[in-house]
Write a structure and sequence with these properties.
Elements (H helix, E strand, L loop, with lengths): L3 E7 L5 H10 L3 E6 L2 E7 H10 L7 E8 L3 H9 L13 E7 L7 H20 L12 E7 L3 E7 L21 H11 L7 E3 L6 H11 L19 H13 L10 E5 L2 H13 L6 E5 L12 E5 L7 H21 L3 E7 L4 H5 L5 E7 L2 E9 L7
Parallel strand pairs: 5-6, 8-9, 8-11, 9-10, 11-12
Antiparallel strand pairs: 1-3, 1-4, 2-3, 4-7, 6-7, 12-14, 13-14
Length: 382
């Protein structure tokens, strides 16, 4: 790995500007948000720190170069010219992924095969042996991104996606990815010390992300990364960054300001177990209570949640009854609060009987959603 480089950090769509601000705070330069992610520059420490500290990025990719192409042979030649043996040993297993926007190639699977061939042929010519392919749990991941006539080759520094923090073993039926949850918290404008509540918490993802922010826990402290398996890995620098992140953790017991609740006792048990693994069980309080009977834990605060939505007829019928009751509960119990609810239901405000003061487009995986903002004041809000 080079001392300085050009990086790209993909993220959930809708969080590009949030991620750009975060990366700038982490020391990145030439920060540029584009659809689906953020390009940035920086030295090795910035690349390591982005993996360790970013709450919003999905991965951190190091650009190895870009060029024009017309066909698969152009891709093969360009990839083969890269000095792969200088980046990882032949004993490391390999995975290649190809993504494209408006590429003229007929088969991305064939393009993927040509990239694998190019890397393996480079090893075979230089060392007489080739690395093995492992599509499930590889040591090294390479990504090729194609547009209509340009290609960029990336070395994945993250390994497993960054939303895999290492603490979530218990998940509900429709869990949010951790980086989307963190992005929602960031978009709410919440700051540690202010009361925070997820009253439909499921396995606790949103509240746990807020609690980790409260304690200053870097999201990557509990896991390993792909760059640790590359040549040129600077173990001394990595230890310094991890030690510095560990020293920032708030060790003292403080008054709990992060709360989560759910009507399902099993979900609350799972949330508490996840919080313990995440190191935040002293900073978040979970309890079993239906949101329709939930009292606000403070006079004012921020509420962020992922309310249920149905795809089956019986679920949709029950939700038609639930949403007005939810709206009534928010009006009755949360005056002085600002609520943020993510949903693919574009008519959610009308179903709740509330007026949204803001709508932010977010994607939960491939599902287009809105993060609705509701400023709760005394009165009907109709």
């Amino acid at each position: 790995m080079t001392a300085t480089g050009c990086y790209f950090a993909p993220c959930p769509r809708g969080l590009e500007e949030t991620l750009a601000v975060e990366l700038s705070r982490l020391g990145a330069t030439r920060v540029a948000a584009v659809l689906g992610g953020v390009g940035f520059g920086g030295d090795l420490a910035v690349g390591y720190r982005a993996n360790l500290e970013s709450r919003v990025a999905s991965r951190i990719l190091l650009s190895l170069g870009e060029a024009r192409y017309a066909n698969e042979q152009d891709i093969y030649a360009f990839v083969k010219a890269i000095d792969w043996p200088a980046m990882f040993t032949v004993e490391r297993t390999l995975r290649v992924d190809v993504s494209a926007i408006r590429s003229p190639l007929r088969s991305l699977e064939f393009a993927t095969l040509r990239v694998k061939d190019a890397i393996c042929d480079r090893f075979r010519e230089k060392q007489g042996v080739r690395p093995s392919v492992d599509t499930v749990s590889p040591d090294v991941r390479v990504q090729l991104f194609l547009t209509a006539n340009a290609m960029t080759v990336y070395l994945d520094l993250s390994g497993d996606p960054l939303f895999k923090r290492g603490w979530r073993e218990e998940a509900g039926e429709a869990p949010l990815r951790e980086n989307l949850a963190a992005g929602m918290v960031a978009l709410s404008g919440w700051q540690p010390g202010t009361a925070f509540l997820d009253p439909m918490c499921g396995s606790g993802t949103i509240a746990i992300e807020a609690a980790q922010m409260t304690l200053g826990i870097a999201p990557g402290l509990g896991r390993s990364f792909g760059f640790e398996r590359l040549r040129g890995f600077d173990a001394g620098l990595w230890k310094l960054l991890r030690d510095a992140a560990g020293e920032r953790i708030e060790r003292g017991r403080r008054q709990v300001a992060v709360f989560g609740s759910d009507r399902e006792a099993g979900s609350v048990v799972a949330a508490r177990a996840n919080a313990a693994r995440a190191g935040v069980d002293r900073a978040v309080q979970f309890e079993v209570v239906d949101v329709r009977r939930r009292e606000a834990p403070a006079a004012a605060g921020i509420l962020v949640s992922n309310p249920p939505y149905g795809v089956r007829l019986e679920s949709r019928e029950s939700l038609e009854l639930f949403y007005p009751q939810l709206g009534s509960a928010l009006k009755a119990s949360f005056a002085g609060w600002t609520a943020y609810l993510i949903s693919p239901e574009m008519k959610l405000p009308g179903q709740l009987g509330l007026k949204a003061s803001k709508r932010t487009v977010l994607f939960n995986g491939a599902i287009e959603c809105r993060l609705f903002e509701f400023r709760m004041v005394a009165g009907a809000h109709r």
